[in-house]
């Protein structure tokens, strides 16, 4: 008997031309926490709606560990958050999340991600997002995917544009004591099929389907 008997999500794998996305083991989480301690973005800006990166380096590392542990502990088929590490040539470069509430009814997912600063500007964010969109639309039968980015987060907005998202309104947030505008973005299944350009392979999904609130025994979508 292995951990997969009780936690099949540990066997889920998404593969792109340069990356493998997987549920992190303790060593992966340690590497991800260290990357967070080293820095995720320019300290002069704050791209996240929850300003967890404004903490000191050791606290940032601890935040990463506790966030992953909390998502595992609170997982329910009607309310889940899957956080995968992105690995390139054996190195953990960042994390890509996908989550949903009442997915079996709403068929809508949200995504979020970050890369260590040393790995910015290489197109890896696009591959990471493309991987979980493949999981959502081809593997789970999603109808919508939503995301969001502050108006000055050009990199995130460009990833969404490449993948076919459309504007879906704005929200006003307070960041570091100042008002900022967050742009909501939405991708439909039809537009995903039109814009998909990154080949993605999904392995280990059929055993996980009940954990996403879906009937088991289905087949994962390929490239």
From TrEMBL:
SUPFAM superfamilies: Acyl-CoA N-acyltransferases (Nat). Residues 43-186 form the N-acetyltransferase domain. It is an enzyme of class 2 (transferase). InterPro entries: Acyl_CoA_acyltransferase, GNAT_dom, Ribosomal_N-acetyltransferase. Its EC number is 2.-.-.-. Transmembrane segments: none annotated. Keywords: Transferase. GO terms for molecular function: transferase activity. Signal peptide: none annotated. This is GNAT family protein.
